[in-house]
Amino acid sequence: MRNRLRTCAGTTAAFAVVFTAFGVSPALAEPAIEERPPLFDQLSSDNARPSGSHPAESRVREGEEPAETVASPDVADVDELRRDTYVAPFRQARSIEYFAVSAQPLPRELVRRVRGIDGVDHVLNVDAARVKVDGKATSILGVHPSSFRNHAPEPSATSDEIWQGVAEGHIALSKDVGTERELEIGGQVTLAGGHGEVPMEVWTHATSGIAGIDALVSRDRARDLAMPEGNALVISASEADLWELHEALEEVLGEDAQLQLVADAPESLVEGDAVPNTVIEQVIANAETQLGVPYVWGGTTPNVGFDCSGLLQWAFREAGVSIPRVTHDQWNAGTRVEWDDLRRGDLLFWRSDPTAPDYISHVAIYLGDGQMLEAPRTGLNVRVTSVRTDKYAGAVRVHA
Fold first, then answer.
1. Rounded distance, CA 228 to CA 95, Å?
2. Measuring CA to CA, how many Å separate 387 from each of 53, 242, 373?
3. Which residue has the higher pLDDT, 326 or 111?
4. Percentage helix, strand, coil, to 5, in the chain?
5. Annotated catalytic residue: which of 97, 180, 308, 328?
6. Active site residue 374
7. What is the pLDDT of residues 344-353, one digit of tens each?
8. In angstroms, how far apart are the furthest CA atoms of the chain?
9. 272 — alpha (psi -120 to 50), left (phi > 0) or beta?
């Protein structure tokens, strides 16, 4: 048995991202790095979802047909497309196991060494930065649409219109950012780049599949924004031992780059015992003090506003327990719990983003007797409600 990987930040990798061209250095995520079987083995399991729930749509291997077709995200007016920039067609669904980011551009020799690691199938060199979009800090990747589309969630990966629009200079926002901040498809946003303000059209609401990444632009647009060039890697290694791969990546990348686990962790052993009931009761009591507080996208402030994962991170932290910030990483931060074994204080998760059916997009805390507490969405306040089974992904018991 292997223990959960320890990093300089303890049992979770504190993904404190220092990449930026503009003097901002916020954190993107705090992933749990755990021993995992191959990705496709994970996606084929049912995770013991209850009656009435819907398992996530799995990515398909080359040559296989998907189980069902999911509609591609809407885009702005395709008649505006000039079609003067070539975008390669969708070729093959590629998974993303890790995302690596550095404050500085990564040397070509280092990228070559990452590509040579045993088990690595494919590596994309991309640009990454925090940029203000209409005045709010937003995590953006600069990508080549022809190659990144193969790593994107299936609904958007297969859409030629999405990637043509990105290639021609428009911005693709995640579903959360687009809807929660009311940045409408076809509307204009202003990005505060290193050379001044850059206007862009919102081309689509399509989640990238990488926790904490809020938007995609072309690498040409990334240069217009003075984003660091080639300071991040998207790493595909669908059949690798993820524990060994993490160690190999750390050895090659060194201390200047941070690693984020992107794909789902399986049910696996983690260090420590489950958080005691006395502490869980304090966590729930903390969360209950925020009943009636508005949902705010990205919110982490008591009595002002929370998003779903921000509320739970705060409630646990106030009780002396550290959990990750981002919903997808909270899903990776504990042991899976069967539906029939749910206990008060377990975290409940959903895959409810139609633009990324595999992506964990919502979390709540279980109160028992079929009730849960959540920060639901814009327009609703923190509330207690019945547990929903539609698109339910599973539950996690937090350990400390």
1. 24
2. 11, 33, 9
3. 111
4. 25, 25, 50
5. 308
6. yes
7. 999 999 999 9
8. 63
9. left
Contact 387, 348 (CB under 8 A): yes
- This prediction's pTM: 0.80
Task: Reduce the DSSP state of residue 43 to 3 states and report it.
Answer: helix
Residues 248-280 have pLDDT tens digits of: 999 999 988 998 888 776 544 356 788 999 999
Cβ atoms of 250 and 100 closer than 8 Å: no
Q: What is the fold, at CATH topology level, of the domain defined by 277-398?
A: endopeptidase fold (from Nostoc punctiforme) (3.90.1720)
Verify whether residue 308 is a known catalytic residue. yes
**Catalytic residue from among 170, 246, 328, 362:** 362
Catalytic residue among 144, 170, 374, 399: 374
Which structure tokens are listed for 225? 């924004």
Is the separation of the CB atoms in 40 and 25 below 8 Å?
no
Q: How many Cα atoms occupy the beta-carbon half-sphere of 53 within 13 Å?
A: 22
Q: Residue ranges of the alpha helices (H) in the chain?
A: 39-44, 108-115, 145-148, 154-157, 160-167, 175-180, 219-224, 242-253, 277-288, 308-318, 327-331
144 noted as active-site residue: no
In contact, 333 and 316? CB cutoff 8 Å: no
Q: Where are the domains of the chain?
A: 39-261, 277-398
Strands, E assignment, the chain: 98-102, 122-133, 136-143, 171-173, 188-193, 196-205, 215-218, 232-236, 257-261, 300-301, 305-306, 334-337, 347-350, 362-368, 371-374, 383-386, 392-398
Sign of CA dihedral 31, 36, 37, 41: negative
Residue 249 in contact with residue 235, Cβ under 8 Å? yes
